[in-house]
DNA sequence: GGTAGATATTTTGTGCTCAAAATATTAGTA
DNA sequence: TACTAATATTTTGAGCACAAAATATCTACC
């Protein structure tokens, strides 16, 4: 009756690493979210809120859209975050006369102060452990993540039939660890 | 080699890699979210929904809590996802006689079918590129991520020795001293 | 039997997240 | 001036995500 064996491996043929990579990413995402909630109890700021404040401090006054890009979030999302931060008095929004479509965001004194007392954006445990790594190891992890980002953000590689294994991106500086 | 932990300027002193790592993670998270939304238009399932279905298929009937663990989400979150999947007729929930606290979740025929026609959980572009890597490269990325997960999930490493700067004038927001 | 504590799930409340639509403003053009 | 298109932000609607509280059930010990 089952007309075809429907070999479940046909499209499920994922390399074990593929599953594993996804699983790791989910766990990282979750760990960050959990830490964000702990942050709230220690300094009344969530992770995304703190990230916005930090970029604001780093880049100075800037329009919503550019802030959104800086923290890798959509403008719509940032609007909500800014609402809450403004409500808390940590920043100010104003439309410049020159172009009233824009909204320039500025850190307030209170915002700068909150930032000074805020813990790091990543778990303290992670921060400690990461800093304990050799510069080479840090760099290696950093590069690995960037590689994943690049593969992730690269869209669809067209209709290109991908069969070209071509060559390894050959990482030259493999040794120093 | 081991850089002595000089008193690191207390708060500003993040290694450049630290910033970069966080930025990469944010971008990865975002890329996954964006793909999840594209998924909806192609198969009416979001990423988390698809992830739940897949685990369900992989592990068979199982209680909510175990499913939550399998997808690295909290039970509360999974409840909402299950609501929608059940509504769509892709799975069934029932409380076994033996223990009516539990809720056993089972894939329905429609669920199994939807799964067969669903695209991969990661961007197609990523999947293609990742598969094009050598086994060694895949493994390397996989390991790097797992290392980060481990550092991320390791809590606080307490007062553990190892690299304590001895004094660390902890002004960390531990309330008013 | 009855009551306390443990276990499993759902509900509640808040925030993050996005696309798409709505709004407001500016610039270009007839 | 009026009309159109482009730009910048906010609103809307839906889903994800969690902790904490609420609910229901089971187990253990009296």
How is this structure best summarized?
2 copies of one chain form a homodimer. With 177 residues, chain A is mainly alpha-helical.
Would you mind describing this structure in some detail?
The structure is a homodimer of 177-residue chains. Chain A is mostly helical and 177 residues long. Among the domains of chain A are: 45-119, Winged helix-like DNA-binding domain superfamily/Winged helix DNA-binding domain (Arc Repressor Mutant, subunit A, Orthogonal Bundle); 120-156, no CATH class. Helix content of chain A is 58%, strand content 6%. Chain A contains 8 helices and 3 strands; from the N terminus they run αααβααββααα. A 3-stranded antiparallel sheet of chain A has the order 1-3-2. The first copy, chain A, binds a DNA duplex (30 and 30 nucleotides) through residues 30, 33-34, 36-37, 40, 46-49, 63-65, 73-77, 79-81, 83-84, 95, 99-103.
